[in-house]
Write a structure and sequence with these properties.
Elements lengths: L6 E12 L3 E8 L2 E8 H7 L6 E6 L10
Length: 68
């Protein structure tokens, strides 16, 4: 599968926390943890499990930065 998003970061799933309708998935990418919120149905459809390799695909129209 090819995607237009250029920020495709491969890592390993370190946790899956299921809620009523949404799960929070953490992916360890070389020591950096990225968290994604996806539907419980998507977790099942993708066969996600702790320890499995996965990609964090990031597509954003803007990134904001703030300082004090």
């Amino acid at each position: 599968m090819k995607l237009s998003a250029r920020n495709q970061l491969r890592g390993r799933i370190t946790s899956i926390t299921k809620g009523a309708t949404t799960s929070h998935i953490t992916i360890d990418i070389n020591g950096v943890i990225i968290t994604s919120a996806i539907t419980n149905e998507a977790v099942t459809d993708l066969g996600l499990e702790i320890g499995k390799d996965a990609y964090a695909v990031i597509k954003a129209s803007s990134v904001m930065v703030g300082v004090d």
